[in-house]
Each structure stands twice: as structure tokens, then as C-alpha cells.
Give the backbone structure.
Amino acid sequence: MDEYKNLTIKTWAVEDRPREKYLLKGLSSLTNAELIAILIGSGNRNETAVELAKKILQKVQNNLNLLGKLSLEDLIENKGIGKAKAITIIAALELGRRRNSTGIMERKVIKTSRDAFDLLHSQLSDLPYEEFWVLLLNRANRVIDKIKISKGGISGTVTDVKVILKNAIEKLASSLIVCHNHPSGNLLPSHNDTEFTTKLREDANMMDIKLLDHLIIADGKYYSFADEGLI
């Protein structure tokens, strides 16, 4: 759309304006840039909202997963994106993650490590810091609750076995699955990860609670202690 360069969206043909295009052709007709343009509403002195959105997407190789990893500070580096617009983009992406997670959890029975990953990855995949989560299950392996246990820095997070087991006991869980992310992208467990898993399994057994798995998530992939025969 080079012919529209430096023009405001209001001067475009009706069918090319994102909101009007949605009304005429439906949501599926909109590109990712046009959807972001609707969120931010306006561009800057030299770029329309769509052009600005395209520039933002180009910086993340047009990858929405990478877009979800951008911080407030990353977004406001773009001329025309202030805090309010940046927060709007971040909030929209978070709503998408929560929608996906809620829909899965409502019907979820955990049968495989992939089932657990599908339920947890939306919370963890885009984070620039580590978080530790636990899934609590009943005797039918149906999810009772999903709880964030701790939040740390880039290199790790401190997790207390007692806190995990306290939550499991209060919810009358029969088994549990724990999960944390590696912002570095490295899926392999550290020595501390392995030691922690062993201690949690032993302490949980004393409470008649079974540790089914420990997942490590990084860049949309996962490592399963159970699949590797380590639990």
C-alpha cells in the first residue's frame, strides 16, 4: 500500500481501513498489523497506525510469540507508541493467553506430558524471568487448580517444597505436576532442578501425594522428567 504512505487511515478507501474492513469482510480478513492498528488507534506524524504496526511486527520477524515477549520499554521505543498504547498491546496478548488457558483447563484431564504442557505453556513461554507453577489433580487426574508458586529472575526462582505441598493438602489433591520455564531457551534441567524434583517426590510420597511430572518449558517446547524416566 505504498500509495497510502504518510496518509492518515481516514483518507484510505473504506475497504482498506481496519475497522471498516472488519465490518465489511469479517475479522479473519484482517492482517496481524491491521489488528494491532485497531488496538493502537493512531500512528505518528509520518506513519499510519497500520504502518507503525507493521514496523513493530518486522522487529520480531512477524512472530506473535516474539511480540508477546516484548516489555513495555521495548514497545515504547517505537515512535508513536506511548505507555497507554503499549499497555493496550500487552493486555490484548495477555487476554489471548488467558482465553486459551481457560478453555483448556475447563475440560482438562491430564493423561500425558503434552496435556500438561498445553495447559501451562501460555503462562510461561513468553516470560523473560522464571516462574514456578503447580497443577493439582484429583484421583481421576482431572485438574483441581493451577497455582503460581514463585517468580524469580532470569537465572532462577526459589521454590519451597513446603509451599507446594501445603497447597496440595488444602485442595485435597491426589497428585501434582510442577513446571517452570527457562528464559534462556535451554530445555535441559540443571543440577538444582534434578535435586529439587527428587526432594519433592520423596516429600510428596510421605503425604500420600504422587508427583507425576516436572516440566521445563522454553521457546514453545518442553522437557518432561517423566518422559525421560527421571520420576
The radius of gyration is 22 Å.
